[in-house]
């Protein structure tokens, strides 16, 4: 499965604990990554400063569903289930 251009659910819905350029402590769930452009594209895609967790994430139907909205629901649920510090 290919990422849906402009979805950005994985760049917003989930927490990232590793440093991101511009977010030295990572980012909490539900917070938009500072590296997202206005059209929800990663401005450091393919750049060596992109966190390993981001570059290692692969789109799949189980994670992304059929729509951007479904991806947000699935990833938000996964975040709640796997991260005890996640907020509603």
Automatic annotation (TrEMBL):
InterPro entries (alphabetical): Puta_zinc/iron-chelating_dom, UPF0153_domain
Highest taxon listed in the record's lineage: Bacteria
Pfam families per record: CxxCxxCC
Protein known as: Fe-S-cluster containining protein
Record organism: Paenibacillus amylolyticus
């Amino acid at each position: 499965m290919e990422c849906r251009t402009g979805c950005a659910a994985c760049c917003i819905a989930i927490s990232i604990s590793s440093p991101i350029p511009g977010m030295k402590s990572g980012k909490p769930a539900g917070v938009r990554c500072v590296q997202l452009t206005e059209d929800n594209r990663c401005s450091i895609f393919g750049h060596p400063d992109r966190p390993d967790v981001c570059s290692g994430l692969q789109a799949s139907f189980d994670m992304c569903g059929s729509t951007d909205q479904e991806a947000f629901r699935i990833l938000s649920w996964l975040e709640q289930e796997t991260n005890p510090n996640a907020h509603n």
